Amino acid sequence: MARISDNAGPARKRSKGDGEDDMERVALAADWDDISTGLRKDLGHQLHSQWIKPIQVGDFDAATGTLALYLPSEFAAEWVRKHFADRLSLAWKIARSEIKTVAIEIHPSRKRMADISLGDSRRPANDGPDLRVVSDGGFGDPGFSSVGLDASLTFAAFVTGDANVLARNAAQRMAANDKPQFSPLYIKAATGQGKTHLLHAIGHQFLAAHPRARIFYCSAERFMIEFVQALKQNRMIEFKTRLRGFDLLLVDDLQFIIGKASAQEELLYTIDHLLSEGKRLVFAADRAPQALDSVEPRLLSRLSMGLVADIQPADLELRRSILESKLTRFAPLSVPDDVVDFLARTITRNVRELVGGLNKLIAYAQLTGQPVSLQLAEEQLTDILSANRRRITIDEIQRTVCQFYRIDRSEMSSKRRTRAVVRPRQVAMYLSKVLTPRSYPEIGRKFGGRDHSTVIHAVKLIEDLRTRDADMDGDVRSLLRQLES
Ligand SMILES: Nc1ncnc2c1ncn2[C@@H]1O[C@H](COP(=O)(O)OP(=O)(O)OP(=O)(O)O)[C@@H](O)[C@H]1O
């Protein structure tokens, strides 16, 4: 039995018709209680209590089919819109067919406070908050052959490095003219590492070769929403016919496939049907098929039966190449090498933040007429930089290098001069210079009190060896990857 939630919307003055309104609010609160409980199971306690629990159910506007959900701050509202809008929308649509749209907003009382503190007296009183409204659309719409493909996300714009070469090659094979050697292709990567980019690129390339091809790109949540709507509106036959008519199906964010066993079953039948017709299927998710939550075993086995291709976090070299490739678009604006290097070294969490940081910096420089410099980057990107700054310590470097070369930790400070320990020590000194802000003398002190000239010599030597000796370069790359991940 559903309980009435504490979060039953903002206080209002009582007026005529409040009896009916109250009943509606009680019913909404009861639905919310159920939805919130379901989300707690899906998301886990921590995410739920941080983002879902603070939500208050606002008013439902029957004329537009819009339900307002309130959060205590614009930041929280923005976060919830970005990460949970589709989930919330889906859950509400399943609970109540009359809800067409869910609007995630800052609580009206907080909104007024925010306006007052901004001192914006010119703002009209009824000027609503910045909304992202989740609305309908998708493959129920006519003209879906190229729906949702972003023109900028092509193979030409995708920079390849060690971290993503397997996924890129697999994606290109999937888009190639001849019959695919595997299907489905399942692309797995952490957030912001280029999964969506590759999905769109496949779509573009396939469409270029087959202009009449029927392609559909959607998120797993969109699929679920479409399914539930078709079910409620008795449009299942039309839904199935359309779905099974695609030549290329691209399903993104599969980790959000939730609940509804019948929708998963429909996806399973669609996969079987399209595969038996030799059609192409591509899925992307932030985890391996086996790690998807509440997905039924038969669907899991279909997802894993083709090729599962990983994209690893972009390493330093790839991050630098991505920045350089983006920069060609901004010519003639010049971005000094030290700034590119700084961004590539500092913004390590994901490519989305890296590209976002560069875009922000350039936009600021263009708008203010200031040259791009290290100082400007530090000033303008404080949030991104501090979120990314995981200080790598010299101790951590020494430990990682010793494990890598299988030598005892004490050798970092010892006076032994055999090659088996000297080279790892020099590599560790080099990495300390590259990955930490420490000066040569400071590094020397951490290596058994060595002189700064010894450190300078080590850094130059390893730099030089990396250009001449592929093994050494490979070792250093691998260590950089370990330390930066
Ligand atoms: N190798 C790359 N070359 C060029 N741009 C890239 C590359 N990888 C990612 N990007 C860019 O980074 C941004 C984020 O990539 P994308 O949206 O594809 O990530 P994602 O893995 O789908 O993330 P999420 O799981 O959060 O949806 C996009 O602007 C994309 O173009």
Automatic annotation (TrEMBL):
<dbReference type="InterPro" id="IPR027417">
    <property type="entry name" value="P-loop_NTPase"/>
</dbReference>
<dbReference type="GO" id="GO:0008289">
    <property type="term" value="F:lipid binding"/>
</dbReference>
<feature type="region of interest" description="Domain IV, binds dsDNA">
    <location>
        <begin position="366"/>
        <end position="485"/>
    </location>
</feature>
<feature type="region of interest" description="Disordered">
    <location>
        <begin position="1"/>
        <end position="22"/>
    </location>
</feature>
<keyword id="KW-0238">DNA-binding</keyword>
<dbReference type="InterPro" id="IPR024633">
    <property type="entry name" value="DnaA_N_dom"/>
</dbReference>
<feature type="binding site">
    <location>
        <position position="195"/>
    </location>
    <ligand>
        <name>ATP</name>
    </ligand>
</feature>
<dbReference type="GO" id="GO:0003688">
    <property type="term" value="F:DNA replication origin binding"/>
</dbReference>
<keyword id="KW-0547">Nucleotide-binding</keyword>
<comment type="function">
    <text>Plays an essential role in the initiation and regulation of chromosomal replication. ATP-DnaA binds to the origin of replication (oriC) to initiate formation of the DNA replication initiation complex once per cell cycle. Binds the DnaA box (a 9 base pair repeat at the origin) and separates the double-stranded (ds)DNA. Forms a right-handed helical filament on oriC DNA; dsDNA binds to the exterior of the filament while single-stranded (ss)DNA is stabiized in the filament's interior.</text>
</comment>
<feature type="binding site">
    <location>
        <position position="196"/>
    </location>
    <ligand>
        <name>ATP</name>
    </ligand>
</feature>
<keyword id="KW-0446">Lipid-binding</keyword>
<keyword id="KW-0235">DNA replication</keyword>
<dbReference type="InterPro" id="IPR013159">
    <property type="entry name" value="DnaA_C"/>
</dbReference>
<dbReference type="InterPro" id="IPR020591">
    <property type="entry name" value="Chromosome_initiator_DnaA-like"/>
</dbReference>
<feature type="binding site">
    <location>
        <position position="192"/>
    </location>
    <ligand>
        <name>ATP</name>
    </ligand>
</feature>
<protein>
    <recommendedName>
        <fullName>Chromosomal replication initiator protein DnaA</fullName>
    </recommendedName>
</protein>
<keyword id="KW-0963">Cytoplasm</keyword>
<feature type="domain" description="AAA+ ATPase">
    <location>
        <begin position="181"/>
        <end position="309"/>
    </location>
</feature>
<dbReference type="InterPro" id="IPR018312">
    <property type="entry name" value="Chromosome_initiator_DnaA_CS"/>
</dbReference>
<keyword id="KW-0067">ATP-binding</keyword>
<feature type="domain" description="Chromosomal replication initiator DnaA C-terminal">
    <location>
        <begin position="393"/>
        <end position="462"/>
    </location>
</feature>
<dbReference type="Pfam" id="PF11638">
    <property type="entry name" value="DnaA_N"/>
</dbReference>
<dbReference type="InterPro" id="IPR003593">
    <property type="entry name" value="AAA+_ATPase"/>
</dbReference>
<dbReference type="InterPro" id="IPR013317">
    <property type="entry name" value="DnaA_dom"/>
</dbReference>
<dbReference type="Pfam" id="PF08299">
    <property type="entry name" value="Bac_DnaA_C"/>
</dbReference>
<comment type="similarity">
    <text>Belongs to the DnaA family.</text>
</comment>
<dbReference type="GO" id="GO:0005737">
    <property type="term" value="C:cytoplasm"/>
</dbReference>
<dbReference type="GO" id="GO:0005886">
    <property type="term" value="C:plasma membrane"/>
</dbReference>
<dbReference type="InterPro" id="IPR010921">
    <property type="entry name" value="Trp_repressor/repl_initiator"/>
</dbReference>
<dbReference type="GO" id="GO:0005524">
    <property type="term" value="F:ATP binding"/>
</dbReference>
<dbReference type="InterPro" id="IPR038454">
    <property type="entry name" value="DnaA_N_sf"/>
</dbReference>
<dbReference type="GO" id="GO:0006275">
    <property type="term" value="P:regulation of DNA replication"/>
</dbReference>
<dbReference type="GO" id="GO:0006270">
    <property type="term" value="P:DNA replication initiation"/>
</dbReference>
<dbReference type="Pfam" id="PF00308">
    <property type="entry name" value="Bac_DnaA"/>
</dbReference>
<feature type="binding site">
    <location>
        <position position="194"/>
    </location>
    <ligand>
        <name>ATP</name>
    </ligand>
</feature>
<dbReference type="InterPro" id="IPR001957">
    <property type="entry name" value="Chromosome_initiator_DnaA"/>
</dbReference>
<comment type="subunit">
    <text>Oligomerizes as a right-handed, spiral filament on DNA at oriC.</text>
</comment>
<feature type="region of interest" description="Domain I, interacts with DnaA modulators">
    <location>
        <begin position="1"/>
        <end position="121"/>
    </location>
</feature>
